Structures are given as C-alpha cells and as structure tokens.
Amino acid sequence: MNTRSAVKASIVMLAVPFSLVGAVWFLWALDYNVSVATWVGMIALMGLDAETGVFMLLFLDLSHDEAVRNGRMRHRGDLRERSSTAPCAAIRPKTMTVAAAFLGLVPMMWAASTGADMMKRVVAPMVAGWSPASCSS
C-alpha cells in the first residue's frame, strides 16, 4: 500500500527473505534453538528490511522522475545510469539507519543481567540479518 504498485511491493517482499539467511546462520553459530523469542527477532528483522527496501525504491523513483523531468531519460542506457546512481544517493541515510539500529542492539548481545538470556535470542536475528542484507537491498 505504501508504494501503490504491486510490482514495487513484490520487489520489496522478494528481497526480505534474504536477510533471514544471515539470521539463521547466526542462530546456528550461537547454538540457539528456534523459539518464540527468535521468531520475534526475525519478524522485527523482516520489518526493518522491508522499510529499507521501500526507502531504496523511493530514491530510485525520485531519481527516475528527476531524469524524466529534465529530459535525460531517452533510452535504456539512461535508465541504467539512473539505477546505478540512485543507490549512491541513498547509501548515507540507509547506512545511518542500519548502523543506529545495529549499534543499539549489539550491547544486548553482551548483557548478563536478568532477562538477558531471552533478549539475546530476540536480538541475535536482528544483528545478523541487518548487517549484510540491509546494505545490499
């Protein structure tokens, strides 16, 4: 509904499962069993990944619209140029969003206080999934 396009929504939804790959491998490396807490972390990860995917589509749309408005969208090569320059414009805000979330959650992985055992299982999928997937979608 945010993109008002079934194609754009499909692109975002198809990218979301790739962030789960890092989360599953990290859970395996930490020897965590799948539980309600890990599912909560995976759902939160998928939400942030969808958000950053929509963010990237916004930058692509703005770049395309600007090129059309300025008469620089004449052939397929222009479209390729726009699709390679728009992610460069989005890299700083996208990296800042992911880095803030990542740096805010990493201390929870080292926690040893009451409830930390459960919180580590919520945070682990988010820490592992955001770092590789969010910067590449």
Can you walk through the features of this model?
The structure is a single chain. The chain is mostly helical and 137 residues long. The protein is built from 4 helices and no strands. The chain has helices at residues 6-29, 36-69, 76-109, 116-133. The chain is elongated and about 60 Å long.
Quick take:
The protein has 137 residues and is mainly alpha-helical. It has helices at residues 6-29, 36-69, 76-109, 116-133.
Query: Which fold name corresponds to the CATH topology?
Result: Multidrug efflux transporter AcrB transmembrane fold
Question: Which structural category fits the helices and strands?
Answer: mainly alpha
Tally of DSSP β-strands: 0
As residue ranges, the low-confidence spans are: 131-137
Q: Would you tell me the overall average pLDDT? A: 82
Distance between the termini: 19 Å
Tell me, briefly, the overall form: elongated
Beta-strand portion reads under 5%
- Give the CATH superfamily: Multidrug efflux transporter AcrB transmembrane domain
Count of helix runs: 4
Order of helices and strands: HHHH
The description of the largest β-sheet is: none
- CATH architectural group: Up-down Bundle
Radius of gyration: 18 Å
- Overall CATH class: Mainly Alpha
